[in-house]
Amino acid sequence: MTNNTTTNAETDTLVEEVVGTLRTFELTEYEAKCFVALTRLREGTAKEVSDVADVPRARIYDSMDALQDRGLVSVQESKPRRFRAVSPREAVDLLERECRSRLDRLGTALPRLGSPNRTTGAGEVWTMEGEAAVAERLATLVADADSEVLLAIAVDELLNDDLVDALADAVDRGVDVVIGSPGAPIRERLHEAVPDADVVETWTWWDAHPIEAGAVTSVCMVDGDALLVSADAETELPGVRKHRAIWTDSAEAPVVGLMRPLLSTAIHG
């Protein structure tokens, strides 16, 4: 009895998770519940879907029509009508293609909104916070590199897959990539993931590893122009910390001139 209860609870949790995820793809709650129920059944009548999905019978048909329009459900015009869900793999592929199409349209349209007469102010420095935001900015800076990337990094949290891929791609483009870290596990990961990069040990900004609270977490300079410096910062919540960073893509920012020789010396030695 305990095992069945646990299994049912786990299934309920999984159903709730999948329904919630499907709703992010612009399915209504009823449509998402119907598709999940139909996936569990593989095929069934409106009554069977209603019973499994806990959706009012009157809402089954319009939900199925919408799912059919999205290519997620096939309909058999029998009496009673029967419905069949595409396979989970087909569903994921279909939704992925929809997302890619939307992103492609956005990528085409969004740049057209920029003012051709507005330029970035010389020497502007920007701030950001949050692990994901800082890691994404690091990856973007590296992805834009033409000739050189100097990166010092002391925490695993910022070295996500996107940044590692950007570093590997930069090396493949012929960019000179030099990475310094005080952490042996970080250096080992980089040696394996980006074998053609120059990975070295550096302690310029750190006294110990793992680093102390409040210390610099990364310093990145690209092509001698763009610069990002991040640090571990306390928040108002006890025991909770986050990454904060300043960055610029302007060589005219004074901080770039100050950091260029220090970073080069710290990594190259």
Describe this structure as you would to a colleague:
With 269 residues, this protein is an alpha+beta fold. It has two domains: 2-91, Arc Repressor Mutant, subunit A, CATH 1.10.10.10; 126-268, Endonuclease Chain A (Endonuclease, Chain A), CATH 3.30.870.10. 48% of the residues lie in helices and 20% in strands. The strands form two sheets. It has a seven-stranded mixed β-sheet with strand order 4-10-9-8-5-6-7, with helices on both faces. Strands 1-3-2 form a three-stranded antiparallel β-sheet. A hairpin with a 3-residue loop joins strand 8 (216-222) and strand 9 (226-234). The radius of gyration is 26 Å and the shape is elongated.
Strand order of the largest sheet: 4-10-9-8-5-6-7
The coarse silhouette is elongated
Average residue pLDDT: 87
What's the alpha carbon Rg, rounded to whole Å?
26 Å
How many domains in all?
2
How far is the N terminus from the C terminus?
A: 66 Å
How many individual β-strands? 10
SS summary, helix count: 9
Bin the helical content: 40-55%
CATH class of the largest domain: Alpha Beta
Order of helices and strands: HHEHHEEHEHEHEHEEEEH
